[in-house]
Design a protein that fits this description.
- There is one protein chain.
- 80% of the residues lie in helices and 0% in strands.
- The chain is an all-alpha fold.
- Helix 3 packs antiparallel against helix 4, helix 3 packs antiparallel against helix 8 and helix 7 runs antiparallel to helix 8.
- The protein contains 9 helices and no strands.
Length: 166
């Protein structure tokens, strides 16, 4: 999300508005971080919620790709909703184990792999932007990454626990 203001600036949005758009996207996560886990906890399978969040991101990034300034407020709302995949993932860790040791094992695996995979993201986006001369390629990458995110979320959202799998 750190690149979001620059995407808007490059589309002609004033700096103050671009910063405000980022703030709206990020601020949405605070109240939704309380709502999403409650909703997820009431569902036997969280796959539909994962897909909803992923599709929100796909539409938000597609909007940034096609018309960043024209639909800026809609795009940031959709991306703010999509960003709630992170608190959902943390919630699902606790939902997919029946015991404390199971939660610890699953959390250690999910978070270490997740953070390891995410580390090169900002550098890659910056390099793609620099080499391609615009935001099209980085935005296509972000859209493309939402597909495996949704697929993994559907699998992780199944009504099972790690103890059932071992």
């Amino acid at each position: 999300m750190g690149w979001l203001p620059q995407i808007f600036r490059d589309a002609g949005v004033p700096a103050g508005t671009a910063g405000l758009l980022l703030a709206v996207t990020m601020a949405m996560g605070v109240p939704l971080a309380f709502v999403i886990p409650r909703v997820a906890g009431r569902m036997r399978q969280q796959g539909p919620l994962v897909v909803l969040l992923g599709l929100s991101g796909l539409v938000g990034y597609a909007g940034l790709y096609a018309a960043p300034a024209a639909g800026a407020w809609l795009w940031v709302l959709l991306l703010g909703l999509s960003n709630c995949a992170f608190p959902l993932a943390l919630t699902m860790i606790g939902m997919r184990a029946r015991s404390g040791p199971g939660v610890v094992r699953l959390s250690a695996f999910a978070q270490s792999v997740g953070y390891l995979v995410s580390v090169p993201g900002p550098l890659l986006v910056g390099a793609l932007y620099q080499h391609s001369g615009g935001w099209d390629v980085p935005l296509l990458l972000m859209m493309g990454l939402l597909l495996p995110q949704m697929a993994a979320g559907i699998l992780a959202g199944r009504d099972r626990t790690v103890e059932d799998e071992s």
